[in-house]
Amino acid sequence: QVLSLPIVVIVHGNQDNNAKATVLWDNAFSEIDRVPFVVAERVPWEKMCDTLNLKFMAEVQTTKGLLKEHYFFLAQKIFNDHSARLEDFQSRHVSWAQFNKEILPGRGFTFWQWFDGVLDLTKRCLKSYWSDRLIVGFISKQYVCKLLSAEPDGTFLLRFSDSEIGGVTIAYVIRGKDGSSQVENIQPFSAKDLSIRSLGDRIRDLGQLRNLYPNIPKDQAFGSHYNSEWGVGG
């Protein structure tokens, strides 16, 4: 006999997401000499960060992993705590329930369902943009407003949607003649949307977008991702 990697048997495709979560948790956090099927119910957040980073890099097949500010956003999301500092999360433990059972506040999905959607979208449509560090991705809408509100008109950045599974959205600042600013978020693009027209071409199409935050002209940032045709449409 020999110990294998964890296996979950499913009978329907809608169980796939939960099965992947079970395999990931078991593979990352079980002890080699454990009683069969026994896995810790709670694990250190720092260990979870390492696991999410390795999973992200392996799935997307990129050398550009998650950054410290990404972990901070993910911690705020999974713990539903927006008042703690980055250091405060380092000593915390995250539970299986927080990871894949409890529905995120105001949403219809769990943390893992949301993160797995980001993985799938990035792997299928955004690998080159992520690898070129053109996508901030893991950042809250509130923090985006804080960053962009002081920037020139048309400054934008890309973030993963909070409200939809597997969506990427563009946030940009509009500055009025009186100097006031307003940050707008474009309806998130799904993998289906981006298979019809790429993200680079969509950014080129949108005339209100001028500079990628903090101050890179959009043609300079995304030019290598434009297709050669200039018409609108797929």
TrEMBL record:
**Where in the cell is the protein located?**
Cytoplasm; Nucleus
Keywords linked to the UniProt accession? Activator, Cytoplasm, DNA-binding, Nucleus, Phosphoprotein, SH2 domain, Transcription, Transcription regulation
Per the record, the domain of life is: Eukaryota
- Alphabetized GO MF terms: DNA binding; DNA-binding transcription factor activity
Instruction: Please provide one cellular component term from the Gene Ontology annotations of this protein.
Output: nucleus
InterPro entries given for it? p53-like_TF_DNA-bd_sf, SH2, SH2_dom_sf, STAT, STAT_linker
Which biological process annotations from GO are given for this protein? cell surface receptor signaling pathway
Positions of the SH2 domain: 114-213
Q: Pfam families of this UniProt entry?
A: SH2, STAT_linker
Family (UniProt): Belongs to the transcription factor STAT family.
Name it.
STAT6 protein
